[in-house]
Write a structure and sequence with these properties.
This protein has one domain: Rossmann fold (3-Layer(aba) Sandwich), CATH 3.40.50.2020. The protein contains three helices and nine strands, in the order E-H-E-H-E-E-E-H-E-E-E-E. The structure holds guanosine-5'-monophosphate and magnesium ion (2 copies). It comes from Apostasia shenzhenica.
Length: about 190
């Protein structure tokens, strides 16, 4: 099997991603530098694991790291719009500033569900850091909590993308770049 051969077009190379991740980490490090307690950085499993690993190593302030798991897609390319939280946080976030790290925001239903969940656990602010944003497909508007910010890496055109943590049917997560899958691979 040749992973690269399944990709129709590369949208962002590993180098382009790395530069943008550095920018986002610098913004976050600056915005949260005066807080008295460590920020809790929460990766949304599985898709955000590569982005999370890269960005936390570029953040220069004290942070705690945890994961939460949300599932909406199954093995298809369309969001179900009713994601479930299938694995919860380990860290107590009561009174903490939380940054949710996501691979991509599509309809917005996963994020709005996760934000409501973290809010109910007593986070004092909730920010979102998404590598990709597909604003054209937004169905649900999500609200940040407290002084939370929305950090976005790149605007993503309306294609199904894979790589840099993102999958189709659990494959392609290990590609170092982000690309568009050849349509015959999922039709
Ligand atoms: P939403 O709930 O915003 O519709 O979708 C969020 C989740 O769906 C993302 O966290 C991501 O896991 C998945 N997703 C959305 N668009 C894409 C895409 O183009 N490619 C891949 N691989 N996953 C996507
Ligand atoms: Mg995701
Ligand atoms: Mg997926």
């Amino acid at each position: 099997m040749d992973l690269d051969g399944d990709i129709e077009r590369v949208l962002w190379t590993a180098e382009e991603i790395s530069i943008r991740v550095s920018d986002l980490a610098a913004q976050i490090s600056g915005d949260f530098r005066h807080l008295p307690s460590p920020v809790v950085v929460v990766g949304v499993a599985t898709g955000a694991f590569v982005f999370l690993a890269d960005i936390v190593r570029k953040i220069t302030i004290p942070i705690a790291v945890d994961f939460i798991r949300a599932e909406s897609y199954g093995a298809g390319t369309e969001s179900s719009c009713s994601p479930i939280i299938s694995c919860d946080l380990k860290i107590d976030i009561t009174g903490k500033h939380v940054i949710l790290v996501e691979d991509i925001v599509d309809t917005g239903s996963t994020l709005s569900k996760l934000i409501a969940h973290l809010k109910s656990k007593g986070a004092s602010s909730i920010s979102v850091c998404a590598l990709l944003d597909k604003p054209a497909r937004r169905k649900i508007h999500f609200e940040l909590v407290g002084e939370g910010n929305f950090y976005r890496g790149f605007d993503c055109p309306d294609y199904f993308v894979v790589g840099y943590g993102m999958d189709f049917a659990e494959l392609y997560r290990n590609l170092p770049y982000i690309g568009v899958l050849k349509p015959e691979k999922y039709k």
